[in-house]
Amino acid sequence: MKSSLAPGIRLVTSFSRDSRYRGFTLVLTFLFYTAYHLSRKPISIVKGQLHRNCSTVIRPADLNVTDNSTWCDWAPFDQDNYKTLFGALDNSFLIAYAIGMFFSGMFGERVPLRYYLSAGMLLSGLFTCLFGLGFYLDIHSIWYYACIQAMNGLMQTTGWPAVVACVGNWFGKGKRGFIMGIWNSHTSVGNILGSLIAGVYVSSSWGMSFIVPGLIIASTGVLCFFLLVEKPEDVNCSSPQHHDSAAQENAEREPLLRHSTVANEEIFSSTSPVSNESVEVVEDHSEAISFCGALSIPGVVEFSLCLLFAKLVSYTFLYWLPLYISNVAHFDAKEAGDMSTLFDVGGIVGGIVAGLVSDHTGGRATTCAVMLTLAAPMLFLYNSIGQSSIGATIAMLMVCGALVNGPYALITTAVSADLGTHESLRGNSRALSTVTAIIDGTGSIGAALGPLLAGVISPTGWTNVFYMLISSDVLACLFLSRLVYKEVQGWCGRTSRLPGFKEI
User: Fold this and answer.
1) How many CB atoms lie within 10 A of CB 71?
2) Contact yes or no for 360/254 (Cβ under 8 A)
C-alpha cells in the first residue's frame, strides 16, 4: 500500500515552485535584516553600564578606592560629559550611515546582491566585535569607539537597499502594505533580540554584548553567500513583471466603478502619488535610474522629508530609551533594556496596522499623518505618567511604539515600493534600490540628529527631550499635508462618480 505524504510535505508541495522560492527569499531577507538591527541595538543597552550610579553598586572587597564616586564606570564615560560622549558615539554611526546610504542604493543596483550583502554583513560583524573587544583589551579612548561606530555605520548601509531590491526582483508589484508590514517587523524583532542578547552579558562583561551579535550577523552573511537567489530567472522561475496583479486587484476591489473605469483611474493616479494600482507594465528597462530621476518621482521628496523627522523620533528611542528608563524609573541596565523591548513590540503591531489601513483606504500619506498626529500627545503622556506604575509603563511603551514606528515602517516599505514602481518607470525594478536609498538616506539624517539632540538636551531635563520629539512628529505630519489633501480630493472625486450618487 502506498504511504501518504506527511502533512508538512503536503503543505510544501501544495505551493508552486515559484511560490516556494519567493517564500524562501522573503524568509531569508527577513533574517538578514533582523541580524542588521540585532547588531545595532547593544550600544543602547550598554550605555547604562558604562556610566552607573556607583553608590548603588556593591564594591568588591579587594578594591581599594577612596573618594571616587565613579569607580564603577568605564572611562572615558565616567565624567559629567558622559551624555555628550554617548551622543558622539551614536552620531559617529548614524552620520556615516546617512552619508553612505545615498551611495549604497546605486551600488545595490550595479553589484551582485549576494556578494554585496554577504560582504556587508561580514564586515559589520567584524566592527561590532571590535567594539566589544575594547572591554577585554581595556581600551578607554573615545576615538577608538567612535571610529569603530563610524565604520560599522558604513557597513550597515549595505542592508536595506539590497534586501528591498532583492524582494523587488521576486515580488515586483505584488508587494502590498499588509505583506510589507509583516515583513518589516524584522526591524523590531532585531531590536528585541539585540536587547535581550545584550542584556544577558551587560552586567557581567559588556564586551560580549557586542561580540555575540557580531558573530550572529557574520553568520548570516555566510548564509547569504550560500543560499540567496537574487533573481527568478537565475533558477528558471517566472519574473513577477509578467503578472499584472494590479489589474486583477482593481477588478476585485472596485466592482462599483465598472462603467467609469478610465475616468476613475485618471483621477486616482493624479491624486494619489504613491498608488500603482492603475499602472501597467509595458516593458522592463535594464538601465538603472539616475539619482535626479528618482527625485523627480511625485511623492519622493515629501515622504523623504517626513521620514527624516519620523526616524528622528524612532532612533532617539532606539538609542536613548533604556537610559531614560534607567534614570527615571531607577531600573538597572538589564531591566531597562528588557523593558525597552516593549516599544519594539508595539512597533510590530503599528507597522502591520498601518499597512492594513493604508491598503483598505488607499491613503498611504493619510495613514501616516493620522498616526503621527496621535503620537504627539501620547509622547507627552508617556513622559508625564508613563513611569507612575509598571502597568502604565508597559501600556504607554506599546502605544507609543505603535504610533511612532507605524508610519516609519509604512514609508520605508509599502510607500517605497509604490514610488519605486511609478508609472514613469515602466516596471523597472532596478529603480527600487535608488528610490529606497533616497527615502531611507534622508530619514537617516533625522536618525543622526535625534540622538545628537537628545545628548545635548537631556542634561537640561528629559521633559525637554520629549518636547523636541513632539515637535518632530508635528513637522513630519506637516510635510505630508499636500499629499493628504490630494488623497482626500481623490476619495471625494471617486465617491461623487459612483452610480446613483448625486452631487449637491
Assistant:
1) 15
2) no
Residue 84 vs residue 247, higher pLDDT: 84
Report helix angle 333-361 to 186-201, nearest 10. 180
Of 188, 190, 199, 194, residue with least CA distance to 346: 188
Q: How many Cβ atoms from other residues are within 10 Å of residue 187's Cβ?
A: 26
Which segment of 153-167, 238-252, 268-282, 284-298 scores lowest on mean pLDDT? 268-282
Assigned C-alpha cell, 4: 501518504
Residue type at 141 in one-letter notation: S
- State the residue for C-alpha cell 571590535: 130
Is the per-residue pLDDT at 114 higher than 70?
A: yes
Nearest to 496 by CA among 258, 264, 273, 266: 264
Asked if the bond preceding 161 is cis, omega within 30° of 0, the reply is no
Q: Give the Cα separation of 471 and 465 in Å (integer).
A: 10
Grid cell in block for residue 104: 549604497
Q: What nine digits make up the cell of 262?
A: 478610465
| pLDDT of the residue at 431 | 64
- Domains annotated for the chain, with CATH where assigned, are 16-53+79-227+245-495 (1.20.1250.20)
What backbone phi and psi angles, to 5 degrees, belong to 437? Answer: -65, -40
Q: What angle do CA 63, 65, 71 make, to 5 degrees?
A: 90
The residues, any chain, with a CB within 8 Å of residue 317's CB and separated by 6 or more, are 340, 343, 400, 401, 404
Q: Could you identify the residue written with the cell 473605469?
A: 261
Residue with cell 511625485: 298
CA angle 204, 47, 388 (to 5 degrees): 100
Q: How many CB atoms lie within 10 A of CB 344?
A: 27
Instruction: Compute the distance between CA of residue 339 and CA of residue 345 in angstroms, rounded to an integer.
Output: 11
d(CA 81, CA 78): 8
Q: CA nearest 220: which of 344, 149, 94, 119?
A: 119
Element of type H or E holding 85: helix 82-110
C-alpha cell at 485: 489633501
Q: What is the pLDDT of residue 425?
A: 52
What is the amino acid identity at position 172? Answer: G
**Distance, CA of 159 to CA of 40 (rounded, Å):** 12
Q: Per 3-state DSSP, what percentage of the chain is helix, strand, and coil (rounded to 5)?
A: 75, 0, 25
d(CA 347, CA 471): 20
Per-residue pLDDT, 117: 94
Output the CA angle 458-462-464, nearest 5 degrees.
Answer: 85
CA-to-CA distance for 314 and 410, rounded, in angstroms? 13
Q: Give dist(CA 213, CA 320) in Å, integer.
A: 19
Q: Is 283 left (phi over 0), alpha (psi -120 to 50) or beta?
A: beta
Q: What is the pLDDT of residue 274?
A: 44
Q: What is the pLDDT of residue 254?
A: 43
